[in-house]
Amino acid sequence: MTPDDERFLRAAIELAATARRRGNPPFGSLLVGADGAVLAEERNTAVTDADITAHPELKLARWAARELDPAAAAATTMYTSCQPCGMCVGAIERSGLGRVVFALSTEQVTALKPSGGFSPVPHEGPALYDEARVPVEGYYR
Q1: What is the b/e burial string over 108-133, where b = at least 16 CB atoms within 10 angstroms of the residue's CB?
Q2: Which pLDDT value is given to residue 75?
Q3: CB 70 within 8 A of CB 92
Q4: Nearest in space to 30 (alpha carbons), one of 20, 19, 22
Q5: Which of 97, 1, 85, 90 is CA-nearest to residue 40?
Q6: Can you give the C-alpha Rg of the chain in angstroms?
Q7: Of 18, 41, 60, 95, which alpha carbon lies 20 to 30 A from 33's?
Q8: Percentage, residues of the chain above pLDDT 70
């Protein structure tokens, strides 16, 4: 962890505090380019936007996928107040970001919640392989 990493993490934590003051879950993130410049920053707005996907990490991954070429995206670092959730991890990977640095782990955040995490939802599958593979087969070439 470099002094710059710590400085950017502190900025992400301040974004989380701002999100909370504005009535949203306390999460904040920023995206830093290879030259150390902040390219974009976001706060969680899930409550005020009435959008359960309004996580700052997801918003930054979407921004990067739209605005950065692959080489520039690969040279970025996302600093975030908490470890990204599964939804956000998927978006981060697809956007091609280079690195993620987080303050609190998922386990640490869960321990701070009075009721723990979300209730698990049962998943069933795989099923109908022969039918389901048809639209997918050959796409990833």
Answers
A1: ebeeeeeeeeeeeeeeeeeeeeeeee
A2: 98
A3: no
A4: 19
A5: 97
A6: 17
A7: 18
A8: 99
The token duo for 87 is: 């939804």
Report the amino acid identity of residue 96. G
Amino acid at 133: R
Whether 90 and 113 have beta carbons less than 8 Å apart is answered as no
Identity of the amino acid at 82: C
99-104/38-43 β-pairing: unpaired
Taking alpha carbons only, the member of 29, 3, 33, 6 closest to residue 16 is 29
Question: Taking a C-beta distance cutoff of 8 angstroms, is the pair 28, 41 a contact?
Answer: yes
Q: What is the pLDDT of residue 116?
A: 65
Q: Is 57 a catalytic residue?
A: yes
Phi, psi of 106 (to 5 degrees): -55, -45
> Which of these is catalytic: 14, 57, 107, 124?
57
Residue 70 in tokens = 């692959």
Quick one: DSSP state of residue 127? -
